[in-house]
Amino acid sequence: MGKHFFLLVMLKNTSVLARGVVGARAVASRGMAYKAPLTDMNFVLNEVMDAPKHWKKLGYEECTPDLVEGVLAECAKFSEEQLDPLLAVGDKEGCKLVDGNVKTPTGFKEAYKSYMEGGWQGLSAPAEYGGQNLPLSLGLIKAEMIGTANWSWGMYPGLSIGCMNTLILHGSEEQKQKYLTKLIEGTWTGTMCLTEPQCGSDLGLVTTKAIAQDDGTYKLSGTKIFISCGDHDWTENIVHIVLARLPGAPEGTKGISLFLVPKFIVNDDGSLSANKNVDCTRLENKMGIHGSATCEMTFDNSVGYMIGKENTGLKQMFTFMNTARLGTAVQGVATCEQALQGALPYARERISMRAVTGTKSADKPADPIIVHGDVRRNLLIIKSILEGGRAFLYFSAMKGDKMLLAKNEEEAKKFDRELGLFTPILKGFLTELGCEAASLGMQVWGGHGFIQENGMEQIYRDTRIATMYEGTTGIQALDLLARKVLMDKGKELNKFISEIRSTCFQTLNGDTSKQSWKLLKYTFQWQLCSAQIAFKAYMNKDIVQTAATDYLMFSGYVTTAYFWLRMMDTSYKALAKKPSNPEFYKAKIQTGEFYFNRVLPRASMHARTMTVNPSDIMNMKEESFWHE
Amino acid sequence: WKRVVDYAVKIRVKPDGSGVETANVKMSMNPFCEIAMEEAVRMKEKKLVEEVVAVSMGPASSQETLRTAIALGADRGIHVETDAELQTLAVSKMFAELVKKEEADMLLLGKQAIDGDNSHTGPMVAGLLGWSQGTFLSKLEAADKLKIQREIDGGLQNLELTGPAVLTADLRLNEPRYATLPNIMKARKKEVKKMSPADLGVDVAPRFETLKVVDPPVRKAGVMVSDVDELVEKLKSAGVV
Q1: Touching check for A185 and chain B: CB below 8 Å?
Q2: What does the pLDDT look like over A135-192, one tens digit per residue?
Q3: Do A18 and B34 touch (CB under 8 A)?
Q4: How far B103 CA lies from chain A's nearest CA (Å)?
Q5: C-alpha torsion sign, points A491, A493, A499, A500
Q6: At B109, which helix (H) or strand (E)?
Q7: Whole-prediction pTM value?
Q8: Could you tell me if the ipTM is greater than 0.85?
Q9: CB of A512 closer than 8 Å to CB of A570
């Protein structure tokens, strides 16, 4: 009997390896492995957002709760078993440029093969080009799991989806048949080549040239930098979407066109040219996301094909700017999830001192640090941003569903405007707080958080870029305040505030009345601040600049509070029905209370600082910033 | 096959000692059943079998894991639905009846379920049907005869069986695939027949009663001895030498 038992225990552990994990299970040194938080995700989807009803209404007949559950469960398995184990090795090895070809970390390529065979890349792509035609929002949740398990790895298929979306929206039928089908299959991947050495935020300064040829093609010359996943060893071809300028085109943003430039030219018979059409001439050495190849791409009379019409390049790019920003906002949520999953087990095991109110673990020489208020506070900050951010993300993703399925251009524009209010808040706010969460995750580990083997500092290094790429926080802030609020004269904002108020009024006298009142007051403050800035801007435009980031953060805290209110209300209602898992709902309510008490008040600070006269920021002479 | 507590979950004994806590605990496909499923699908891909039917017995929640099995490549599924506590004799009898009803000539099971660890079902069904049995398989070659390799305590045993046979899968038989997204979606359209134990004419009343379940005793710290003499002395005073 004893022997039998021993054998069983061994097998139980080894069954973990049953899927043939490629690459060292370096997770053991981290003491934690990613587990997809399916309970929480399903709670938000089904109980808070009523996604099944939303998807059915949009005509996604196949998107029933059990299909979605099955899809998410399988994606979770893949992320946990294939991608998470590669997180440490991806960071340690990084990418290498060898004879002009990028080699990705050990195991990355094999995981992609598995991903491709699973048919995952085409999840939300149109069926007519080989996709599964599932909603964008479901694709985003897939991206969340993949990205939480291994953000670097996830950037490759993620950027490819950006390329796919460009072609879906603007490509010609021929381009779709030739390139989109392969991208959806995953046989090829795609990238977005916008940034150049002299311009990132200001794409009006793009100088890459495109010269028309007699056969209708173009020859592109120029340099693009910071191209994520610009080259790799995963697929036989890569499709680059490139912004370039035609000779004689108008200056600035109005003279940019969009081109498709393949790494290897695709002949009419489907074969690939022997020589490269585009070169990766440099790999950046970065602080983090080492597994993602950040490339300098050199175009030297590279053959390209125009997408859409001349000089409409930026306009075309902006049509899916919103969905692209959703993808980056995911990184904020993913980081919070990683930080919590990394910090919590440590806090429960590491012993240090005794609880202020008396010994909690008499059998140990000291209490686990989770008994201490400061540690709890850090964990709860991470948790409340994580769960609130997730609800905000799914809400926005579902708005994206509506936009993509709009019946006509007018409806598409309507949903795009609605979504457009949220995307800068989502991206700007969640990524900034993601950095805070990553930092707090390290803090919980104390000095050990600084030690590389423990994996916590990697979370911070990998997420620090999130506030910069895909539009810096400053850019998101300006987009929100100047374009989405002021230029819009507050129309979309007021619509959203009405929605928030409606929830507040409905719940004012119920279990969440304390929170409902607080949130209601903040909605008034939101409108007041917006009006104050609009008014002051007449006299001095600078205030838009100096107020923007505070405005963005204010908007983020208040919007997240709205989703917390909804989640708390849903949880109270669920508890009244005596569910089988009351602890889950109680925890939601407690976390929501924490958010309203300890995190939301930050919005008040931003409200105070945003309306201050811009002179204290704008008047200082450049030379005065520092004296020898 | 069986829906069990996920292998990675830390098991907790229920406060009243009547069993282990399964409410709101993550449940998954029994890992050995997954391997059996993979083997069945591979045989179908090699055209060694015509049809693969996935079977699960248990409450309504068993259906979700059954759908996953179909997504892995089964042609259809059968769900014997019952909320009763199912013990191995009942399960074995139901499998025997199902095999007869479906006119199957091979039954592939996981070697044991990781909750009960009984390892009864395979041999019991073989006994009930009078079929050959090959248990703890680490290799399987199917042709006119079934060439199998078994993992036994003494090492590896190679045998040849004549069908029909009950086969149970061990860990090293294969590496299960991931369900592809297109197959997950197609799985929803495949047939899942619902049955009850009564349809199979089997009385599933438990044959034995669990009296008590307790945690294993906490491991006491060992005593370090300085040399062999001290060890022998301690063994002598403990009366074991």
Answers
A1: no
A2: 999 999 999 999 999 999 999 999 999 899 889 989 999 999 999 999 999 999 999 9
A3: yes
A4: 30
A5: negative
A6: strand B106-110
A7: 0.87
A8: no
A9: no
